[in-house]
Amino acid sequence: MKKMKIICTIITLIICSVQVNAQGQSKGIITGKVIDKVLNKPVEYANLILFSKKDSALVNGTISDVNGNYQMKDVPFGKYDLAVDFIGYERYVIPDIYINKENMAVNTGVINLEQKSEVLDEVQVVEEKNYVEYKIDKKVVNVSKNSSVQGGNAADALRSVPGVVVDAEGNVTIRGSSNFRVLVDGKPSVLSGSELLRQISASTIEKIEVITNPSVKYDPDGTAGIVNIIMKKGNVHNLGLNGIVNASVSTGDKYSGDFLFNYRKKDINYFIGGDLRYNTSPSQTELTRNTVADDSTMTMNLLKTLSDRNMIARSGMIKSGFDYYLNDNNTISLSGQFGLPEYERVMDSRFHEWDDPNTFHSYIFNDDDYDISGYYYFINFNYQKKFSNPGHEIMFNAFYNVWDGERYEYAEEMITDTEYDPLDYPVNKFRTEQYESRKEVRIKADYTLPVDSTGKFEGGFQGSLRPVNADFIFENFDTVSQDWILNSTFSNDLIFNNNIYAVYAMYSDQWKGIQYQAGIRGEYTDRLLELPDAGKKYLLERVDYFPSASLTKQIKKSGQVQLSYSRRINRPNEFFLNPLPAYSDKYIITLGNPDLLPEYIDSYELNYMKYLKTGFLSAEAYFRQTNNTFDRLFELGDDEILYVNTVNLDRQYAYGLTLSENVSVSKWLSIYSNVNTYLYQLQGDYITYDIPDVAASFDLFTRPTIVIKKKYRIQPYLGYNGPGYASQGRVNGFFNGGISVSAEFMKQKMTAVISIMNPFNIFDYYVDIKDPEFTSEFRMRTEANVVRLSLSYRINNYRPEKRNEEQMNNINQGGMF
Predict the structure, then answer these.
(1) Which residue has the higher pLDDT, 502 or 95?
(2) I need a labelling partner for 773 at 20 to 30 A (CA). Which of 19, 483, 518, 593 fits?
(3) CATH number reported for the structural domain that contains residue 546 in this entry
(4) Residue 574: left if φ>0, alpha if ψ -120 to 50, beta else—which one?
(5) Closest by alpha carbon to 597, among 534, 544, 654, 520?
(6) What does the DSSP assignment read for 750-773?
(7) 462 with 442: CB under 8 angstroms?
(8) Residues 588 and 441 in one domain
(9) Which distant-in-sequence residues (6+ apart) come within 8 Å of 80 by Cβ?
(10) Is residue 575 a part of any domain in this protein?
(11) Nearest Cα to 52, choosing from 86, 31, 76, 85?
(12) Which of 119, 145, 168 is the endpoint of a domain?
């Protein structure tokens, strides 16, 4: 109740702030909205500069918000010209704006910005967006601008983003955390972070938004923030048919193909798309483990494991939907998607176990096949109601998501000679089956109310029901009866219900040239973990609150600075909570922890952007404190089995500074680079590795783009991810790199890309674990010199547009004021 009183008090203060601001306007004001003329989408952070008509002196300036809206307060009486600029767009000028007693409020309406272009023999070449764009509160990755990822997946597209690390298996971490929320077109998925990113083809993605300090309007889940994947859509503003078809083939049995068609007729827009993928990822791993005697004077037991493994991903997907524009103020949308993903890991391992002195040697060969298969589908309904006052609207969303699948593993363990040829000994076999059903029902309503001409109040409600049912069966093969026998130690049923109900309120406005936003979100959680076979139930009910705030200020003519804060949560899933053991192999067993507490994260950021005529410079400083930090605990049992559990450390601190630049050196060369340096501290009772009091690391990435005759592009890239620490180990730094060459044909309708990934076999992943009872080392090498050919064909996406003389005279006169 105390927390709810705090929430109500803050909401009351926000409403009072709205009323105070509504009474404070005394001078002239200019408002309006900036949109992309072709895409009909808001242009965020467009620069609007007011010049005196008398002497052309700069009088005032501001930027557009996330919805393209802008407002310019405290404008003295007079006559002005308003200039609108943004990188990649033509300058737009509105002349002869009068502010006086009779005309104190001027609304310029919708300002349509046009992308910069040149006209060459009736072929229009549009100035490209940067691959990574900075918008203060988020990074926007324009996936189509990186030719090396075409034919890859969403995880590949994130490799060059500052603060993002992608390992050999496509596992993603953001600023050192693998816990982040993944949305697709703003909607959640039953698949988790990295798993979902590996499933989505890069060629179907328009852009990816990385939001490290989201406002209270978003779910607070995810230590590192939110990754929002915006899928490609046809040009819904043009009547008729348009679309795109993509295909790729790579060495090492990798194939993919997808399509998207869009058809607009009067007030209805239809779309349909599909995707087929087959991908193999072979690798070699080496694991060594030394068990130390109690007196630490000699090695008692050594284990060395060499593994060849291949990860095979197969998937098929179909999606369809429509938008129905009832009138200018009412729109409904209905869409759905059905998919059949399958993931298989085939692994052959050779175990050599011995002691010191050499009195015992054992050689074991393990053949392991692990498979995940199933189906998913979702249905998404949206309704948007606009009122007569611009910006005043209600958005309603209903979302239903289902995953129904099976995880299957089959393994054979056999005693061999030194060459790993089987001996005449019994073969140990086991198999596991896990049937899993996940559902999510989500109802959400968002309300936006403009206040005066500058402020905005936003509020909403969200209810989310997430039931999970899992049945895990473990069987051993009896060599005597030649039959499969249920192993009750590793078999169990699980029921997990996680229901969350949330309300939020947020207010944003401007004061003396500073844009500010503040809000709070309250959540009630009702969670149940039930293990029917064990007769155990674990209940949790709690109320949490999550505030957020930000201040944004334009600095001089072409810079912006922002200070922001948000509180977030990382909730443990059912597998982290399940206390019953899960068998990995004869040397490793994993257990969950029902007493595991959620992680709570306080995140602070100070960001600065400097726009240049040929690009930008950016600096991001951040601090993150994580309470109840999750970490893996490795304990060696008396049976020489390594038990892996998840525990709460006390807390973790992370500090960082990210510097980025994207500059066009000339018409044919542009360079994008970033460096992310960071410090972090771990505190807790389980730390056994010799970690520095303050650990330091850094990541580097650079990718030049060379343009030849405007149709050919060469993009080499090189990245380095620095070392990192956990409570019991250290991960060494590693390189990744490649090169791609792209070309356009058939009047830009066809694009071909050839890329080479991991040339010279530079990727080397190494982990070192130390404990008083044992040490362990793990090394992985992945496939090298992978060559990929990707083709893309556009249907009616490109429409040359003739320009009048006035427009042609204005070309290249834009820029950052």
Answers:
(1) 502
(2) 593
(3) 2.40.170.20
(4) alpha
(5) 544
(6) EEEEEEEESGGG---EEEEEE-SS
(7) yes
(8) yes
(9) 50, 51, 52, 53, 59, 97, 98, 99
(10) yes
(11) 76
(12) 119
764 and 617 fall within a common domain: yes
Q: Which amino acid is at 246?
A: N
Q: Residue 570: exposed, middle, or buried by beta-carbon count in 10 A (0-12, 13-18, 19+)?
A: buried
CA distances from 74 to 26, 27, 29, 400 (A): 8, 5, 6, 48
b or e along 59-93 (b: 16 or more beta carbons within 10 Å of the residue's beta carbon)? bbbbbbbebbbbbbbebeeeebbbbbbbbbbbbbe
- Cβ neighbours of residue 359 under 8 Å, at least 6 residues apart? none
User: Do the beta carbons of residue 538 and residue 528 sit within 8 Å?
Assistant: yes
Q: What is the pLDDT of residues 325-369, one digit of tens each?
A: 888 789 999 999 999 999 899 999 999 988 877 677 889 999 999
How far apart are alpha carbons 455 and 508 in whole angstroms?
6
In sequence order, the 6+-apart residues with CB closer than 8 A to the CB of 251 are 785, 786, 787, 788
Residues 509 and 647 in one domain: yes
Q: Would you state the structure tokens that stand for residue 620, as one six-digit string?
A: 């991001």
Tell me if 377 is assigned to some domain.
Answer: yes
Determine contact, residues 768/733, Cβ cutoff 8 Å: no
Residue 732, judged by CB atoms within 10 A of its CB (0-12, 13-18, 19+), counts as middle
| Residue labelled with tokens 């309708």 | 749
> Percent of the chain, pLDDT > 70?
82
pLDDT digits (tens, 9 = 90+) for 239-257: 678 888 989 999 989 999 9
612 and 475 in a single domain? The answer is yes
361 occurs within a structural domain: yes
Q: What tokens appear for 327 in the block? A: 């009138």
Is residue 236 within 8 Å of residue 267, measured between CB atoms?
Answer: no
Distance of alpha carbon 676 from alpha carbon 164, whole angstroms? 9
Residue showing tokens 């109740």: 1
pLDDT in tens, 716-748: 988 888 887 665 667 788 888 889 898 988 877
Q: What are phi and psi of 796, to 5 degrees?
A: 60, 15
pLDDT at 148 over 70: no
Q: Where do we find the tokens 């059905």?
A: 338
Q: pTM here?
A: 0.73
> Are the C-beta atoms of residues 244 and 794 closer than 8 Å to each other?
yes
Phi then psi for residue 198, to 5 deg, are -75, -20
The residues, ordered by sequence, that sit 6+ positions from 581 with a Cβ below 8 Å of its Cβ are: 489, 490, 589, 590, 591
How many domains is the chain partitioned into structurally?
A: 2
| 624 shares a domain with 494 | yes
Instruction: Output the pLDDT for position 807.
Output: 31
Asked if 478 and 484 touch (Cβ cutoff 8 Å), the reply is yes
Cα of 350 vs its chain's centroid, Å: 37
Domain that holds residue 57: 2-119
For residue 816, is pLDDT > 60? no
* Encoded amino acid at 252, one letter: G
Residue 196 within any structural domain of the chain: no
How far apart are the C-alpha atoms of 537 and 543, rounded to whole Å? 20
Please answer whether residues 345 and 370 qualify as being in contact, where contact means their C-beta atoms are separated by less than 8 angstroms.
Answer: yes
State the DSSP code for 802: -
Which pLDDT belongs to residue 667? Answer: 84
The pair of three-digit structure tokens given for residue 23, joined into one six-digit string: 């009474």
Question: Which of the four pLDDT bands, split at 50, 70 and 90, describes residue 142?
Answer: confident
Q: 417 and 277 share a domain?
A: yes
Contacts of 333 (CB under 8 A, 6+ apart): 321, 322, 323, 324, 380, 381, 382, 383
Point out which residues pair with 13 in neighbouring strands: none
| pLDDT tens figures, 108-119 | 888 988 876 543
